[in-house]
Amino acid sequence: MKIVKSQQKRIFLIFLFVLITVTPMIIERQTSTAQAKIQWDDLSQGTITEQAILSLPSPWKEFFTDSSDFLFIHADGPDQYREHLKYYRMDLYNEEAPRHFDDHDTKELDGTIYNVSLPENAHLIDAQFTAEDIEFISINVSSTSKKYQKGVVEWAVLNFTRKVTDYMSLIANDPSNSTIWHFTIIHMGWLAHYVADATMPLHATVNYDGQLTGQGGIHSFIEYPLLDHETTGYLSDVNFTHKPAVYVDSPINQTLHSIETGLGNVSFILETDKILAPSGVRTKDTIKDMWAILGEMINARLDLAAINTANLWYTALVDSGLMTKLSEEDLASLNIDTTGFDNPWMPPIPPEDESSKTQVKKTPGFGLVLLNLVMLSILCFRKK
């Protein structure tokens, strides 16, 4: 009996220490996952960016085509940056994540923050970009507020449109400066990413992955096996119309229109998924059948992303004066070799300050696990 009780005690201690060690890891993983929104996959993001170039007028279409590979890479920059922050700077992660979506079905348009008629030079936006914040989005709303955490992709689009415009203004005064071209193209890629995120229907709803209706995984299913997978994906079947880019008076209103029309497609996606995968199990046949039903709508959303991206690039070219500053001959004479550029996929992360340290979530490391194992060994194998 004494031996049995001793064994039971050891089993209990093993369970207790495993629980102490693993539970914080699980909580951290669930917290990070819950805050993240899935997006058009990296291949779709890059394709949208490449296709947007073809909506620009000549000679800019031909000029940026030479940099299409570089733009393709940086179209995925915001996602890479966000995922990096998730493991190293949760305080900045909580600022970045809402820039990718807008839970439009949970907001009240109260006329002060989200009303589409709100002037774009309102107090929410800091239009003065300094050397310290040039790589970051300035939205003067607390990132911990409920309104911010419901999504601010429309403001991210506005701010990056302004950043691209600012860089193009610098180019107008120094056209041969490769460094300025470098950062201009990086920001064009980032802008394209946020624009595309706003066209993804499931970025407009709090039920972004079907998690509230028992349809978990629907978002990632559309992203990868339905679109980007090398054998089952239908991305190559998407028809981009390449409508000529037009000047946009209000980047926010263009983005809000994308969000609102995307929200109208959410029920269509979820109802289709319920019909094709009532048990939640999606197969190769589901891919084919879902594309047959949703393909036209998804095609339209991807095309809209490319058109809206081109519109804002064109707007930046006009507002910066670069459109009229450089002629076709000027562009042809430039030797901007983007193949020689470094390809950082994220802006520099500022050092932690005292206020951010308390927000950074630490995951139990190897030291904690080792300590627990040592203590467990002592308790379990000590002499009676």
Structural features, described:
- With 384 residues, the chain is mainly α.
- It has two domains: 1-35 and 363-384, no CATH class; 39-350, P1 Nuclease (Orthogonal Bundle).
- Helix content is 59%, strand content 0%.
- It is built from 17 helices and no strands.
- Helix 4 (68-74) packs across helix 9 (178-199).
- The protein starts with a helix and ends with a helix.
- Residues 22-36, 108-141 and 343-366 have low confidence and may be disordered.
The count of strands amounts to 0
The largest sheet, given as strand count, sense and whether it forms a barrel, is:
none
**CATH architectural type of the largest domain:** Orthogonal Bundle
Low-confidence stretches: 22-36, 108-141, 343-366
Q: Outline, from the CA principal axes?
A: globular
Structural class: mainly alpha
The radius of gyration computed from the alpha-carbon positions, rounded to a whole number of angstroms, is 24 Å
CATH topology of the largest domain: P1 Nuclease
Question: Could you state the order of secondary-structure elements as H and E?
Answer: HHHHHHHHHHHHHHHHH
C-alpha termini separation: 15 Å
